[in-house]
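#lab-general

N.A. 3:47 PM
ok so I finally got the sequence cleaned up, no stray characters, all 386 residues accounted for. can someone with queue access submit it? mine expired

B.Y. 3:52 PM
send it over

N.A. 3:53 PM
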Amino acid sequence: MLWLYYRRLRVPALVISLSLAALFGLTIGIGSVIGTDRRPPGVIDSVTAGISGAQLHAAPGPVGSATMRRGLRLMAAAEAACQNVTYRGEQMVVWWGPGGPSATLVQVWHRLGQQELTLGTSDVDLPASARPAGSLGPTATSHVTAGVLSVSAWMLTLMRNNYLIEYAGTGTASGRPANLVVIRRRDGSVAARYWLDRATGLPLRREIFDSSGHLVNEGAFIALHVGDAEVPDVPAPRAPAWRSQPTRAGLASLRKQHWPLPARLAGNLSLVTLTHTATNSGVVVDASYSDGLSVVSIFLQRGRLPASMRGWKRATVDGATVFMSVPGARSVAWSADGFVYTVIADAPSATVRQIVGQLPHDRHEGFWQRTGRGLKRIISWLDPFH
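B.Y. 4:20 PM
back already:
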């Protein structure tokens, strides 16, 4: 009897087994294409009701489509809200790097017609000698600080130049109804997601992904108060010696003083602001670069790093020995040609490695390697924005 049942059910069982195997393989394939979130549960809890996986990972619509036009309008409204809305709040910012996740809390204040003030990120992961004297006060930021959610006019311009912006549905973030905007690379992959407050237009939450679909950076308001009545007092900012938008003449002047400042970095990052600050051990120049999403800051100071630094570990990047901050490895520091370089980034790890390799290092190179590297640097100086 068992043999008879086996003969009768053998073909259907085989068909069912093959179907289940195919379905399992398709599920694994889809998971590998989409990528997995490496976010620890509960770090930032924000419900995204009404947003389907198909919306988040579908190919972008044609340029000029209704969803792209609406996405552009929403991001333009977000940029205007960051200038015109009075608010204060606290943001949780999390980075995922080669050393694992790291998080920080950032306090923000903004009044209509004034620059946003931030406290909590200005002096994170800098070598002790590079930290400005009296650096405990809030910092006025005319440009975005790494990880902070505000959107400026130049950010929106770079975002439009480098990415596709598309409306992708509605949801909630920070307990408030929100519109979701997906920022895509030209190949259609998701580079970032923004949750924009439906009442004010303010960015409530942002996620940035690398080209493999892995989460690199996430920031969200965990407390937000809007309106003059909710922002009675704004602390006085600690302003640096000067901050400016980079110009050809200004960059050429700094280079004549032998400050090695590139105009562009790997990953299509453009120089957007320069800051000049007095510290305990000399002047520090902060050059900030962005592609509209990620922000990379290069801190330059004359001198040389010690053989070891507390809270930093030795590592090798692109064949060069550097220090990485612990934990998180979000900052990289090294000495070269009489300067100390400190790179702080919320960009993907692959981009950070390219940037570190692009900048000068004290390498053990032969004559022709040194000559070639020197010629490339001289050529780049002929055009300050090359």
